[in-house]
Design goal:
Elements lengths: L1 H25 L5 E8 L5 E12 L2 E5 L6 E8 L2 E11 L5 E11 L5 E7 L12 E10 L2
Length: about 140
């Protein structure tokens, strides 16, 4: 009898853990105003604003101004948010380059991840094909 109760209790706690994990997973949406900071390997940083609007399960439309036109779609893939688009390169000397492709990936809980920029043309002293991976941190604006 005691063994049956222990098995029943273990099954109940296992079921509770699955339900709790499912509830935490379902809460990973991106909605509202967030600031972002991208820090290069050398320590220089740039920042800006993203405005996320849900567009379905694991999907958010991203604008850079409130109510503005979407510049990208963020998608929840394998438990990580990912987003791709193009961005004007800013060189260390203050000059800027052409729009080049970027790929953001971040954790839905910590809002921390990476931003990889790929140069298609020579810019900022780097050849075509150069990739730079920066630290990315998003913060929800209250």
């Amino acid at each position: 009898m005691a063994t049956t109760r222990m098995i029943g209790a273990a099954a109940m706690f296992a079921g509770l853990a699955v339900v709790t994990a499912g509830a935490a997973w379902a809460d990973t949406t991106m909605s509202g105003h967030y600031t972002w900071t991208s820090t290069t390997p050398r320590g220089s940083a740039m920042s800006g604003d993203y405005y996320f609007t849900p567009c379905g399960d694991g999907c958010a439309s991203v604008a850079t101004t409130p109510g503005g036109q979407a510049v990208a779609l963020a998608r929840l893939i394998n438990g990580q948010w990912t987003m791709e688009g193009t961005w004007a390169i800013r060189c260390a000397d203050g000059s800027s380059g052409p729009n080049e492709p970027y790929h953001h990936t971040w954790d839905p809980n910590t809002l921390e991840g990476t931003s990889t920029l790929t140069y298609n043309v020579p810019a900022c002293g780097h050849p075509p094909g150069y990739q730079q991976t920066n630290h990315l941190q998003l913060r929800q604006v209250p």
